[in-house]
Amino acid sequence: MSKNREQLIKLACQGDQKALEKLLLICQPDIKRFARRTCSTSEDVEDAVQIVLWQLYRKIGMLKTVATFTGWLFRIVERECYRLFKIRRSKNINSDFELDNLPTTNLDMDLKIDLINAIIVLPLIYREVLILKDVQEYSSPEVAAKLGITVQAVKSRLHRARTIIKEQINSQKISNI
């Protein structure tokens, strides 16, 4: 962090209104960039940015040290994106996977059956992650929290689960030829 920015944060923490306004302008692009990676929709990104800027404005005086500013700010963004995600998800409670809602042809039905069979025979550690992430649409941090594993483990298991399913479905296609 530059000396100029550190000084700006110090002044804003001490209640300097001009420094706070300048800090809000400087931080907005970083907040938006981080929110784009964290929020689930573009509407949530815009909402999160506005809420985070408001919280920064209101709570900057609570910051204990300048060195923790960036982590503190991004933690607020992360929490806000998660809160907005939960609100959006609760409005769309249709998170259950329903085969009956999908349009069907004979080929589609065969693929669905193969897919279900491939998921069923996945080892439990991969099946849990796949269902939570791809079917129930939980975020990686949520899946990690539910299963008591790291986000990296979630990503690794999800990748492995998808690879196993692809291999099984491709081998089914080859054996049916």
TrEMBL record:
Protein family per UniProt: Belongs to the sigma-70 factor family. ECF subfamily.
Identification of the protein by name: RNA polymerase subunit sigma-70
Keyword Kinase: no
GO MF annotations, alphabetized: DNA binding; sigma factor activity
Record CDD domains: Sigma70_r4
Transcription listed as a keyword: yes
Keywords linked to the UniProt accession: Sigma factor, Transcription, Transcription regulation
SUPFAM superfamilies: Sigma2 domain of RNA polymerase sigma factors, Sigma3 and sigma4 domains of RNA polymerase sigma factors
Gene Ontology terms: biological process: DNA-templated transcription initiation
Stretches assigned to the RNA polymerase sigma factor 70 region 4 type domain: 115-163
RNA polymerase sigma-70 region domain location: 28-86
Domain of life per record: Bacteria
Transmembrane stretches, start-end: none
Any Pfam family: Sigma70_r4_2
